[in-house]
């Protein structure tokens, strides 16, 4: 009896893929293009959470198409747009040019041990996802497509044969996606761009204001460097203070913000971003930590 790892589902047929290309080509330039592409991929392998993202420099990511269970939309789509993407190695690779376009498993593209990364601890661990393989497709110098193929925690990880298949079809995925992007004018289309006033366009302003209402000037300096991922020694060097002094400022800052690690600090920043959009000139923590008003007498 053949092993399950060598079943046809694990060994997608390139000839069948080539035959299915006509179905995808027929929809270049229209709204059915990505749904059709995803459907064809799902004929060759299990994909539980397919997502197509448009990454553009100085704009928040835009979800072009996705198939996600209702209970997962908040964390996989909304929270990602609200700041989860900032540490995503696929986003950093695509828009910051940290990796060549191609197809990658997330554990391959992550700069360090993935489950030890800030991205995993502050965001990715909350997803119902056991594995992810994605295409990074360059559209121009300031934009790319991110075609993410995820498996949930009830599904086994992608096999090496499946990864090899996805690598083999990368040229056709890339060429068709670039053709569709040009015909649909994805990069420049007006009216479809996300209002990123409080999330991406002004993210540097949010960094500047974050914690201002609670911290001293020096604690705020330490906070800014930590949010940028600098370690203790490098932060101390940049500020011209000793590592011991920096640790003292960090301890005081942690107490005031009620966090105990750099990962919790970054999670706090992400969670507070929605409050920055409400009051873009104020410290987002001021409203984030504000106690809700007590109901008036006679109200529930």
Tertiary shape: elongated
Tell me which CATH architecture of the largest domain applies here: 2-Layer Sandwich
Largest sheet: 5 strands, antiparallel
Strand arrangement in the largest pleated sheet: 2-1-5-4-3
Q: Give the averaged pLDDT, no decimals.
A: 82
Low-confidence stretches: 1-10, 191-201
Count, helices:
14
End-to-end Cα distance, whole Å, is 65 Å
GO molecular function, one term: DNA binding
Organism: Pseudoteredinibacter isoporae
InterPro entries: Sig_transdc_resp-reg_C-effctor (IPR016032), Tscrpt_reg_LuxR_C (IPR000792), WH-like_DNA-bd_sf (IPR036388)
GO biological process, one term: regulation of DNA-templated transcription
Helix and strand layout, with pairings?
Elements: H1 14-25, H2 33-44, E1 51-56, E2 62-66, H3 70-81, H4 89-95, E3 102-105, H5 106-109, H6 118-122, E4 131-140, E5 143-151, H7 160-168, H8 170-184, H9 203-209, H10 217-227, H11 232-239, H12 243-257, H13 262-278, H14 284-288
Antiparallel strand pairs: 1-2, 1-5, 3-4, 4-5
Helix pairs in contact: 1-2, 10-11, 10-12, 11-12
Any overview of this molecule?
- The chain is built from 14 helices and 5 strands.
- The protein has 300 residues and is α+β, with helices and mostly antiparallel strands.
- The protein has a 5-stranded antiparallel beta sheet with strand order 2-1-5-4-3, with helices on both faces.
- A hairpin with a 2-residue loop joins strand 4 (131-140) and strand 5 (143-151).
- Residues 1-10 and 191-201 have low confidence and may be disordered.
